[in-house]
Amino acid sequence: MTNLAFDVYGTLIDAQGVVSTLSSYLGTDKAESFSGRWRDKQLEYSFRRGLMRQYQDFAICTKEALEFTNNEYGSPLNEEQKEDLLDTYTHLPAFDDARAALSKLSLSGMGCFAFSNGSQEAVSGLLEKTELSSYFNEVISCKDIKSFKPDPEVYQYFLDKTDGQADSTWLISSNSFDIIGANAAGWKTAWVKRTKEAQFDPWGVEPTITVSSLSQLIENIK
């Protein structure tokens, strides 16, 4: 059986959905750069904790990354505003193409799983709020083994949980580090390149397929 593992933040859910809240505090121009820096540090902290085997919940990485970014920008946000932004992270919007694509894929006979660095509670809550939860067989969280993508152990954990095989499992992600990690684990991969400006890491590795929208998956995954 073919199983589809969907990355959540940045693939199904728009992690830049915090920009509108940030704009009310910082103005539009600064909000976009602040949000991008916050996201970069969030991922960096997860990578570092994974390598050091000093696990903390992804929500902690998010909070610490916000603190760093705020300090770097000269502390424009007060404590109440930072708490508001962290709350915004729990109800980010889904990308416009997510619901229709998942509806078709969930009826295709393939297994559909949410596969995330976020905790099962956080991801399940987010999928409920965006009305995507019904399309998934299960939410599989890297928190269960206290690590983060792209640790090889998390991709093996997914296979163990789903009783799947690497060569019949697809990772769908807009994050190239995730695609490269899954490729190293022997998976098939679909890189969701949502913008022309998006760059794939030049590691001599290519995704199995590249799509610009989730709607293209149904016709390209066999």
Automatic annotation (TrEMBL):
GO terms for molecular function: (S)-2-haloacid dehalogenase activity. It holds the Pfam family HAD_2. Keywords: Hydrolase. Its EC number is 3.8.1.2. Gene3D superfamilies: HAD superfamily/HAD-like, Putative phosphatase, domain 2. The keyword Hydrolase applies. It comes from the Bacteria. InterPro entries: 2-HAD, HAD-like_sf, HAD-SF_hydro_IA, HAD_2, HAD_sf, PGP-like_dom2, S-2-haloacid_dehalogenase. It is an enzyme of class 3 (hydrolase). It catalyses: an (S)-2-haloacid + H2O = a (2R)-2-hydroxycarboxylate + a halide anion + H(+). Belongs to the HAD-like hydrolase superfamily. S-2-haloalkanoic acid dehalogenase family. Catalyzes the hydrolytic dehalogenation of small (S)-2-haloalkanoic acids to yield the corresponding (R)-2-hydroxyalkanoic acids. This is (S)-2-haloacid dehalogenase.
